[in-house]
Amino acid sequence: MAKEVVIVGGGVAGIFVLRNLLAKKDKVGEGMHLTLIKRERSGWESVCGLPFALRGWYEIGLTEIQKPQFFQDQGVDFRTETEVVQINVAEGFVTLDTAEVLKYDYLVLATGRTPSMPAVVEQAKLEGVYTFNDEDDAREIEAAMNAEGVEHAFVRGRGINGLQAAVAFATKGLKTTVLGGPPSLLPSALDPDMGGMLKEWLEKQGIRFILERKPLTALKGDGGQVKSVVVGDEEIPADIMVIALGAAPNADLAKDPELETGESGGFVTDSAMHVRKGGCSLNNVYAVGDCVEVIDGITHRPRLSQFASTAVVQALVICENILGELIEQSTLYSPYAPCISPSIADIGGLLVGAVGVTSEAAARAGIKTVNGKATKLIKARYFPGATKLTMKLIFDAFTRKLIGAQLVGEATVAERINELAVAIYAGLTAAELRNMERCFDPSLSQLVDVTTDAAEKALESV
Questions:
Q1: What SS3 class is residue 228?
Q2: Across-strand partners of 228?
Q3: Would you tell me how many other CB atoms lie within 10 Å of the CB of residue 85?
């Protein structure tokens, strides 16, 4: 009899579990039937592409990579606008909001995240206030920002989503204010000196920042529509408002209080991504993506890593472990390693990247650090596109091993972050990074790379 695999959630985490299982479905001798259940209307949606649609680069509809029918044509029971209201891991079934009961042999929880919302905003109950978490949010924001008479925008939050929304508003010509907190932008990824470079770049695009310990004390409206916000004792015009204060894991959607969650609120899993219950791993229940707590590869402490790139790796691990049980004579097995969360974002034309820990995160974990920072052109100065790149490298002060890296520039950031992620995994030291032989062509690179300079400055600081 075919094995039943039920995936709860159709974001990038759930979709990649589905895609990977589909790719090897024919190798399962007894057969495998796949069901995916999601609340949204869309199929495979590229949520990371939505901010650029708001900037007018393309239509929002183009971010739907594959429609539900694509998966249904491959035999997947792909259910949209449907919710799971109960999970019974003891008896192996889920109950849907339609009252239908689905039995499973394997269950994958890809339940995602829920955007945080300040109490003052919930209490105001005004139109024109949005989160920025999915396609539906993007469509509502797009309609609101293009409405007649909209001139002022307000963003609460200084993470990637909030800043990208602010850029979209500024691009549209709206007078935009961002309320964050001290000392600078993207504090989970960038040290203040690097975040300050991003702030300066965005200020030149007309975005105002309030990075002080000032509370959002009130929202004021007219006819049920937001018109202004009060920050401290200042009233700021706001015809549209986006709340981007981060998101909590949707671990409570499992409706089973015995499934273990950690201090971050995400599901606790073992190295195979099995969910835990009562201190034991459930060998046929997995969790993946934004709803999962990970172990930091540097501090070895639990945290969240709500990135699509994290979800894709976890999805591969889950698929190999399910298929390892179902395919005869299979040697498939994958453990999920501690997480260093390489990230990259285009924010108003400036690229920011980070991997590993910030200086502050290291200090909180009791890790003493040394760092080196350098700014350099990415290629010979006489070639077109010779823009500047600033790199900050963070090393363990005792071992001199690389534990964090941050980049700000207009080009070559993504590939360098990937390189530095490998360097962290390999345990490379400042001296090894400085002495590493590198390729050279004046049209593509510098003879002495910015990485070499940053590592050298870290060594000089010792």
A1: strand
A2: 220, 237
A3: 12
18 dihedral zone (left: phi>0; alpha: psi -120 to 50; beta)? alpha
| Structure tokens, 28 | 């399962």
**What is residue 333's predicted lDDT score, i.e. its pLDDT?**
84
The CA distance from 439 to 459, in Å, is: 23
The highest-level CATH class for domain 117-243 is: alpha beta
Phi, psi at 200, each rounded to 5°? -60, -40
- Superfamily for 3-114+247-326? FAD/NAD(P)-binding domain (3.50.50.60)
pLDDT given at position 330: 73
Which regions of the chain carry the CATH code 3.50.50.60?
Answer: 3-114+247-326, 117-243
CA distance to 259, 305, 328, per residue, from 109 (Å): 11, 16, 25
In tens, the pLDDT along 429-450 reads 999 999 999 999 999 999 999 9
CA distance 195 to 361: 15
Q: Strands of 116-181 (E only): list them.
A: 129-131, 152-156, 175-179
- What pLDDT sits at residue 252? 82
pLDDT in tens, 21-53: 999 999 898 899 999 999 999 999 999 999 999
CATH architecture of structural domain 343-460: 2-Layer Sandwich (3.30)
By the 8 A CB rule, do 203 and 209 touch?
A: yes
Distance CA(143)–CA(69), nearest Å, equals: 27
Start-end of CATH 3.30.390.30 domains in the chain: 343-460
Beta-strand ranges (E) seen in 246-387 are 247-249, 274-277, 280-287, 293-295, 302-304, 343-347, 350-356, 369-377
Q: What is the pLDDT of residue 172?
A: 96
Residue 213: helix, strand or coil by DSSP?
A: coil
Q: DSSP assignment, residue 336? A: P
Residues in the chain, pLDDT under 50: none
Q: What is the DSSP secondary-structure string of 172-191? A: HT-EEEEE--SS-S-TTTS-
Non-local CB neighbours of 283 within 8 Å, separated by 6+ positions: 274
Bridge-partner residues for 158, per DSSP?
A: none
Ramachandran assignment for 438, one of left (phi > 0), alpha (psi -120 to 50 degrees), beta (any other): beta
Tokens of 154: 């307000």
